[in-house]
Amino acid sequence: MKNNLLKVFLLIVLLFSVSSLSAAVNVVEMFINGGVFMYIISFLLIVVIILAIIKYWQLTIKEKLNTQQFYLKLKGYIKNNQIEEAIRICAQFKETTLGFIFWNGLLGYNDGIKSGKKGIELKQHLQNSFDEAGLQSIPKVESGLFWFDIIAQISTLMGLLGTIFGLVAAFDSLANAPEAEKSRLLTEGISMAMGTTAYGLIVAIPTMLIKGGLQSRADKIINDIDEFSVKAINQITYSMKD
């Protein structure tokens, strides 16, 4: 019984290996027959990979910050009116967008206190400091993401353009090519038509998925900024009332 199961397993592995090799050969042939459109789409794929690495580093590694713990740590200093200490902590995280906004906002608030601002004027100065920092840094979070949409659309359109050229070549071979060459040229034209469309979609679909993942991360960062900036401003305002 065990020997039979082993034979079935080995047969499945063998069939899978053969089919994978055949698919790889077909992809290579499809790429060769696709002509210049395949190289253009491949260039777009390389651009996507580079952009994805850059944005992943920016949104995941550079922006790595436990926002909840960061705010709770600052909240204690703000309640005790230890603004200088809060600024010092924010300065350690000012490479992140949230850290920079808090750092800039608290600096502006501290400068307002030193310049003698009080009451409504000081509150407005605090709000303006946070808003200014947000306008300066938040657009950078989503910057470059629109390129993924553009590349996905261009990849699809280049695939369709290759399809048109392939079909034109196929029909032209039927009309004008020598009888002995018709079959080969027709096959190449159809291969180009189908291959470029497939390759364009192979690049476009993952590009859209990558964009979706990065956009989700960017949205979370912006939502955290909105939430905790309001909390910080409110906490400072309550402390001013005290």
Give the helix proportion (percent range). over 70%
Radius of gyration computed on alpha carbons? 29 Å
Largest sheet: none
Q: What sequence of helices (H) and strands (E) makes up the elements?
A: HHHHHHHH
Q: What percent of residues are in strands?
A: under 5%
Distance from N terminus to C terminus (CA atoms, Å) equals: 81 Å
Low-pLDDT residue intervals, each spanning 5 or more residues: 5-25
* Shape field: rod-shaped
What structural category arises from helix and sheet content?
Answer: mainly alpha
Mean pLDDT: 78
How many individual helices? 8
The total count of strands amounts to 0
Kindly describe this structure.
- With 242 residues, the protein is an all-alpha fold.
- It has a domain at 67-141.
- 90% of the residues lie in helices and 0% in strands.
- It has helices at 2-34, 36-62, 67-79, 83-91, 97-114, 119-142, 146-176, 179-241.
